[in-house]
Design a protein that fits this description.
With 657 residues, this protein is of the alpha/beta class. It contains 20 helices and 13 strands. Its EC number is 3.1.1.-. It comes from Meloidogyne enterolobii.
Length: 657
Amino acid sequence: MGEVYVFKLFSLQFKPPKQFFKFIFFFFQFFFYFLVQIIYMAITLFWTFLLFSFLLFFTFILTKPTFIKKDDFEEDIEEQVNEDENNDFPHVDIQTKNGQLRGFRIQLEPPSLLSQQTRYRLADIFLGIPFAQPPIENLRLEKPLPPNNWNGTLDATTIPPACVPQHILAAPDYSEDCLYLNLFSPTIENKKRTVPNTPEQHKFPILVFIHGGGFCVGGTFLEGYNNIANNFVSQGIIVITIQYRLNFLGFFSDGTTKNPGNLGLWDQHQALVWIRQNVATFGGDPNRVTVWGQSAGSASTSILSISKYTRDLFQQSIQQSGSLFSPWALNEGVLESSKKTLKSVGCLIKGDEEECLKQIDVEDLVEGIQKLEMVRNNFAMNVYNPRFDNDFVQRDIKTALETAPKKPTMIGFTSHESMFLSIQYPSSVFALNSPLSIINFTQFDRSKLINFIHNYMHRERGKATEEEAEQIANELESFYLEYQKKNIGKEDWRYFLEQYTMLLSDVQFIIPILAEARLKAANNWPVFLYQFDHVNKEHISKLPFRGVVHAAEYPYLLGPTLFGNYLLDNEDDRKVQALLLYAYGSFVKNGVPNSPPGVDWPSLSSKNKTIEFIRIIKSGLRKEKNPSYLMQKINFWRKLSKKRGFNKIPGFPWALP
């Protein structure tokens, strides 16, 4: 329409008055038309912008991984990445062997019920300290090298990007250049950085945390620094959180001596070497190092404790819900996963695979990996993981364990570890290909549990024949259909759902954890076993049955949680938190998880007939000795492995002690 008015406007002549008025009429008609058009376009652009913003916002909310929520730990991260702009305390400079670092100082606010155990109210925070050279370009898929020296002062006030995850949405910020650690120490004003008012001017014990995430996701952004500092640094402990390469970049292997895999473990080794060489500068004692891992970090800690490369780099360990005996911790399936990835990214070229992998853009690599399945359709779950390379990880675990230094070890587990897999736990980033992925909870019955057991045994029977697999399936069916039946009283969908969860939990976590604990105790390792059995009210209200899920103690120790967001807002939660922090702090400092007066934490007996441990419940700590609910499982799996042969049972690369 606009073109018509323009044509008429310029075709008019100014002779008679009639044409003049006609000109005025068309001029104002033309003017108002374009004014309306401009207003219309402005309104359209405005609403288009609002609609786009709205869709973008909800796309982010719906597609980001559910464990990354807008909760306390994310607020911590925002403060950290802003380089502590709101921090009123001065920056802190310190000289390391590689160069000078600049961190910052914070005020500590430890939990009120822990006040008797804490004495420090200031902490020095150093974020993003390089412990290795960036594993990029020619160093991609190579063992880590010591960090280069730097000139000037290196800013250490920002949380480092996570290592490249299996899925790009599993971290808010990630990079191949990710081999950094964070260090949090009690503030000491004297130049020697020794603990004041002690007879020998001691240095602080060290607690090194290795994050979980199935060897495919995770990073130090999850823990931040506020909660760790409040909970542990206030007790006079230096805490260090480390990162390691994940997924393909961390565990690629073709089975050859050139590419044996386990690069993520070598990263952890390099971090421990850096700590030994530098921690005294921060006031730490390199001869009092405790390595603490959760889930995949726990399995890593388990491996580090017996590997010839790392077993002498620390003195104690805390293993939280993970063992090297877990089927997902050490698995040769990584070879097949590596081959699939090579094909997916176009690098399955005989003789040129390594060169191709070093040249490919990391985003193309991630995209190629994402085309593959997220998890394996078996008890191993994760696609990439450590493997037996007979170098870092010896296949003869028993000999490695017998010859390693006998480290004081805390090992913990929960009652329903695999609940986040069996019922696709709210806020979980994992999803096992289970029968519950397509049906309602209330439809889970006896037949579905039986079908799962038999189908799985025939699909993943290992070295068992069809007949042997069927016999093992029958024994599993008999045990898990009758287990705790008398206690529950009736068979309904909740009963079968819980038994399915227990089967997964036993195979993936509990039996492997107990096997390692008992084997170490039998070889005179001081082992302190605990079961975390406190249920947060916020979580239990959302679940079909009472159970304590994998990593349930995480928020009590570190603040955030991988499986949802809840606050420790009641007296029971605060009491349990104080008990945990008291025990962990005591173990780091003294090698024994002492608890408040009245409860002595027992160590496991070297005699396998007895299992004694602490059960953490809302009313406090309870001693357990050979409880029937646990002994039934242990005896069943021991007899099954001896009767059928452990290597014929899916996921069991070891004999039960």
